[in-house]
Amino acid sequence: MELTQTTVGDLLAGLGPGDGCMYLSGDLDPQALTDVLADRYGAPRTLVLDGFTDPTADESRGAALLVPFQDRAVWIRAWAWGDRWVGAGTARDARGVLRPVPAVAHRRVPEPAVIAPGEDGDQDVDWTARLLGITGWRYPARRPDVNWAEAESRLGTPLPRDYKWMVTTFGTGAFDGYLDLNQEPWTHLREEGLLVWAGTEHEDLYCWRADGDDPDRWPVVVRSCDGEDVPYDCRTAEFVCRILVDPHHRFTTARYFGTHWFMNCRQADRDLPDRF
């Protein structure tokens, strides 16, 4: 069997909507399987390497994928995607033969992905903490060494603190695999007073109206794909929280996903012990 997006998609569909795994022919290349999945779901996280399970693996990090393998998993990588964990790698079957395996499991976000009515307009809400809860993020910062002083000097302006936190924490990738977080603001709309901090595959641009000396008070403006500027009187992290969970928001992803995540672009794992 040739491993393509179509054939791998069929394999995953064959596992059903619940938890499941499948032992494939030993002739298939498990690395090719994980490469196809990484092209679809972004950077994976290693759960098992050389038979050793990541000691930090728990329900929030995809441990449910390992249940059907008991202690026979040899090498397993995992991806979060909505309310699902997707995994692939190698495991020994009941006869002890090493075989490639795909697996799926239900993904539960520990905190409720909702914004309470009392939080509407509440200046005391920690929206960065809310974003961690909504996405189920439980990993160390992806880009802890960003030199923000150098970046801000090059841009000629300070940047909002919650945006810098988002880049440092999540790194390169997209919320719900859709909202791409720029690692540094784009400046091509600067003459119009806008700095672009994110965008989507539909070519909507998520910007700040960079007015005033305090970047933490810059409002969000969405430059829609048809050129309309849509203003929002909120800051960056609050805006992301709202589009993830409010199904009535004009730019929401909540109509498509009830469980949310951040999809990292493909890169080496940074959230694991040295042997992983």
Please describe what this structure looks like.
By secondary structure, the chain is of the alpha+beta class. It contains six helices and 13 strands. The protein has a seven-stranded antiparallel β-sheet with strand order 12-11-10-9-8-7-13, covered by helices on one side. A six-stranded antiparallel β-sheet has the order 1-6-5-4-2-3, covered by helices on one side. A hairpin with a 2-residue loop joins strand 2 (45-49) and strand 3. Helix 3 packs parallel to helix 6 (236-245). The relative contact order is 0.15.
Mean of the pLDDT scores? 89
Question: Treating each run of at least 4 consecutive H or I residues as one helix, how many helices?
Answer: 6
Record field, number of beta strands:
13
What is the helix/strand order? HEHEEEEEHHHEEEEEEHE
Helix content: 10-25%
Work out the strand percent.
25-35%
What class would the helix/strand composition place it in?
alpha+beta
Tell me about the biggest sheet? 7 strands, antiparallel
Low-confidence stretches: 268-276
Q: How far is the N terminus from the C terminus?
A: 30 Å
Silhouette? elongated
* Spatial sequence of strands, sheet with the most strands: 12-11-10-9-8-7-13
Rounded to an integer in angstroms, the radius of gyration calculated over CA atoms is 20 Å
